[in-house]
Please model this.
Amino acid sequence: MKRRRFNWVVSDYVRKALKVYLEWSARLKGERFYCNALAGESDYNITVNCDLTVSCACQDYDGSGHIGDLNKSTFKEVFFGPTAQRFRTELAMGKLPIMTCTRCGDLKRAKKSQVKVFTPASDAPQNGTKTEPSLFAGPTPRLPYRGMLLENTVRCNIDCIGCDRQSAARIRTTKQMDLDKLSQMADLVHDLGLEQLFYLNLGEPFLSPNIGQELPLLAALSASHIFFSIAGTSEEMLKKYEKLGHYEKAYTCMKALVDYRNARGLSQPILEWKYLLFNWNDRPEMISRAIELAKAAGVDAISFWPTNNPFFGISYRYRLGMLNNIGIKNWKGREVDLRQVAKAPQAVVA
Ligand SMILES: C[S@@+](CC[C@H](N)C(=O)[O-])C[C@H]1O[C@@H](n2cnc3c(N)ncnc32)[C@H](O)[C@@H]1O
Ligand code: SF4
Ligand code: SF4
Model:
């Protein structure tokens, strides 16, 4: 078995320390936690994995965030099931149920006085057993409506240093979602009335041998946004994170897709350069160069996404507000809209 990367081993210690810190600091301030994703309010975290397990977070590399399995239960049963309820209850009691919470953007705080007992809706599944009352803080949990991730495959050929995809691949019972299952998931997305579907998680969606048949299924959900995850503006910069990636190939493909779309007189899918920010690619001149290159490629937007992973790559320029003059702030980080884009329901492919 391949040895875990050094940054992941260190990261385990960092997360243990963070857990103690976060739990005590909340307790001392009279605060408790809640999970925005388990409240049904997140854009980007609840994930249906390629083997139909459901994770609360997209960085669920070890399965500790599995809240259920759609092979055995409905989505509603999973979302209000015993594991999800235990997570909500522990958070409301001031405890982080899994280590992933320590670095999760959906971990939120609320005053202790705002903790409530969860009363399931009359049509909510009861699982046939009488259990302890569940608690929650923050908004009353509801089914997700803003966005979710759907993983068609857990295969990848890029090997990014902050992505422990290989561990996730080891625990999947299949590496690839078959077309029947995918079409069931398309129905789920429709039934939930999701505003956005991110067609990615811990794999490279375009490595699926069925991608040609999958895209029409997505088209039925009005697939309208493709992100190109390119973490730099040169081969050297990109390979610091995306070790087996190729800047020239990625940039050329992105530009070719813009040309292909434009030649057909289409304005969709929206094409966006997703630029993960690290302290080796976040200097102002690098950001300006990326924006110029994005304009030259003709993409609709370029967004700059901060990450805490790997810990030694954290963009302190972003954290210190030194990039606040770039575009607008949103849930991604900072975004430069290179074209006025109408907001519409969308499915997203990376
Ligand atoms: C795991 S990847 C799967 C999709 C595709 N393989 C890719 O990398 O774009 C899912 C998303 O995570 C993002 N990502 C990769 N490393 C990350 C990190 N260290 N922190 C936050 N997001 C990251 C990627 O940009 C991508 O949009
Ligand atoms: S890791 Fe924690 S905070 Fe993040 S989605 Fe899961 S339960 Fe919520
Ligand atoms: S390309 Fe995506 S899935 Fe592959 S290693 Fe990088 S982040 Fe993980």
